[in-house]
Design goal:
about 375 residues, six-stranded parallel beta sheet, about 55% helix, 15 helices
Length: about 375
């Protein structure tokens, strides 16, 4: 039986106004800011992201005589932290928000831009998520607990994906992005199972078709893309894989209207972050989703694929159980906590007793 779908956002927001992916893309920032009639930038990011991108961005901004201020953004995307930055004089002077870094910084920049009615340009430094492309901010509390998602009423204005930066990301980040993106097809599979094609939402159906292509191509490209990372030099495989991880996966989300494509794998991520925040604070989104994906495969009736999938994950240094992340799964109360919360979540809406038992068996492989 297919799990009942719930559309959170009625509009189809397909991602970003402009997406540029090329060598040296970050140096195009002044040009993209001018397209938005911007004059003064408020830039947020982390130390590693700044070390990669600012040497490219700052000379371009100085040549363009474009004023800017740079601000360190620590940790997870947190509403309280965002609002503290938005209350500064530097933010009041700026008319464009720039986010440089990973998913949390991109989500924070989007939140700050939308809440202050400013445009936003994002410069990702890895392909660990599609956060730079999607009009959504996932937020957390200051003690790392999942707080909720904001579905923004506008798309990202621009994304600059610089392949000179992308080829420097650690394999762990790229692998996290691959398995997060791979989850889309297998989760949508749960949503459309046993439903006649004419009865499936047209956006979800289109999303499913693209997710199948993305899934197959990503896994095929991954080994050669890792070779590029090892050489710290971009190649066609890495270029294509980055595009699939960010743009294609972001489009999949947009066609499914932002949440309709999620099922057990992402719900395991959401609940684990909420229930075990201190244990998981140092792990990436895609690492946790990947573990959930193993349970999703089993639940979908693809048990024979689980061990091979897990072996591939381990070959890229990714964990395959929650206990490997430090969650005390030997405690019955922790296992019951996750199972019971999953059972009452949207990921299991409309399911019967037999499917509940199947979920228990699926979770047993990731304890």
């Amino acid at each position: 039986m297919a799990t009942k779908s719930r559309v959170v956002e009625s509009s189809f927001r397909f991602g970003c106004g402009r997406y540029v992916q090329e060598s040296g893309a970050a140096a195009r920032l002044p040009e993209e800011v001018r397209r938005l009639h911007g004059t003064h930038l408020f830039i947020i990011g982390g130390k590693t992201a700044f070390s990669l991108a600012l040497p490219v961005i700052e000379p371009a901004l100085k040549v363009a005589d474009m004023p800017y201020s740079v601000h360190d953004y620590p940790g997870f995307c947190c509403v309280e932290t965002c609002e503290e930055l938005m209350a500064t004089e530097a933010f009041a002077l700026a008319d464009v928000v720039i986010g440089i870094g990973g998913g949390n910084v991109c989500d924070a920049a989007k939140y700050m831009a939308v809440k202050s009615d400013r445009p936003v340009i994002l410069i990702p430094t890895s392909a660990a998520t599609c956060a730079c492309f999607t009009p959504l901010s996932v937020t957390y509390t200051k003690d790392f607990r999942r707080a909720g998602s904001y579905h923004h009423d506008r798309e990202v204005n621009g994304v600059l994906v610089d392949m000179d930066i992308m080829c420097l990301q650690p394999e762990r980040l790229l692998a996290s992005g691959v398995y997060d993106a791979a989850a889309k097809m297998i989760e949508i599979e749960q949503r459309v199972r046993d439903i006649p094609e004419n009865d499936i939402d047209v956006g979800l159906n289109a999303s499913y078709a693209l997710s199948k292509h993305t899934y197959e191509r990503m896994l095929a490209l991954f080994p050669e893309a890792v070779e590029a990372l090892n050489a710290k030099k971009s190649n066609k495989a890495l270029y294509d894989l980055v595009y699939l991880n960010i743009a294609a996966t972001g489009l999949i989300s947009g066609m499914a209207r932002g949440s309709n494509q999620c099922a057990i794998a992402h719900k395991i991520y959401d609940l684990s972050r909420a229930l075990f925040p201190s244990e998981l604070k140092d792990y990436l989104h895609g690492e946790i989703v990947g573990i959930g994906l193993l349970a999703q495969l089993y639940y979908n009736g693809r048990e024979d694929e689980v061990e091979g999938f897990a072996a591939d994950m381990r070959s890229h240094g990714l964990p395959t159980t929650l206990s490997a992340l430090g969650v005390h799964t030997e405690k019955e109360e922790n296992r019951a906590l996750l199972y019971n919360n999953l059972l009452t979540s949207t990921a299991m809406a409309g399911t019967d007793e037999e499917e509940h038992k199947r979920l228990q068996r699926a979770l047993a492989i990731i304890w």
